[in-house]
Amino acid sequence: MKKIITLVLLCLLFLTSCSANITSGSSPDTSGADTGKDSYLYLAVDGVLYKYNIQTGYATPVCQDPLCHHDSDKCPFYGIVDAVMPVGNKLYFVKGSQICVYDTSDGDLKTLYDTNGAVFYPFMADKYIYYNTLTTKKENGELVNNIDLFRFNIEDNSCIQLNKELLYGFNFCSTIINDKIYWDDIGTNMSYSTNFSYGNKVEGADLKYSIQSKNYEYRLEVVNRQPIKVKLIVKKKSGSDEYMIADNVASFKVMDDCILLLYNTDTPKQVGTALDENESETAIYDYQCNDIYIADCDGGNKKLLCSISDNYVIFNMTNSDGALIRYPYIGIMLWEYEYDEKGYIAGKEIAKDIIILNIKTGEYKITISE
Fold this sequence. Notes:
- This protein is an all-beta fold.
- Helix content is about 0%, strand content about 55%.
- The strands form seven sheets. Strands 24, 25, 26, 27 and 28 form a five-stranded antiparallel beta sheet that branches.
- Strand 10 and strand 11 form a beta hairpin.
- The longest helix has 9 residues.
- The relative contact order is 0.15.
- The N terminus is likely disordered.
């Protein structure tokens, strides 16, 4: 789906299939970064904000009202759009059309700004939250959809519109490197880069190494598409030589001082059966292994960190960002298969429960949700 095949949507394309999957790592995280002063990781699942206790492994909605079903706007933590963006003790997120902040230290929830439109692809860079809005207006008796791009300043709650001309599709961030944002424009099928002020725009910015650590940069090379087989290539920033550090990689996560690796296998396991359009049974296979490896950022000193039970299916490690990291703990999202009344697989969705992994010791727990 990504035009110049930006990595995030390439990942999702493979992830939503029943064949092997592949996801890229994201921009490096700061080792020692703390998701607030409490002992929780945070994730929005089906629009509901959950907190995951690192010590006990219990997962509960942040909303503590025992009578709330967390399925309507009556719930203060329902309707969250995509990302949960941590800054110190505070979690910033979009709820419906509102930009909100939740202070994990005292439980205070505030609405900072109303966007007056449906919000898509929010993300944070520096002190700003960027987002697209979709609004509908009547022009000449017909309903017309308008897409606009905005930047909200969390320090003074000011908001400005970034696009000066009509947008033909959503613009979203593919990666952030230093003080540059690399964008993908769905409407024009083009990429470009800007600074945080949306200035110094460079059209056609094609970033070869879109994942970076302090001293290294990475790219993916698709070797085969059916079944999918992808290599992870690394290059030192100060040099020009590149080399492969992982073959048949399914997912990886770049940290400041290490890289986590998950692989696909050539011999998939059957996870169940489904009915095709002719009501005939068809086997569903999963190519992904559940062994998580850890290595230096250059791929050296690779070793097995942990083996996750085959009762679970890892979604990916790419999305283990922001509120899912409290170093050395990292939250890893899981798939959950859906079954019909006859026991056939009808689909799969993101599970409420996650893996909480200590990347220093390899110890992990699967959370238990309400």
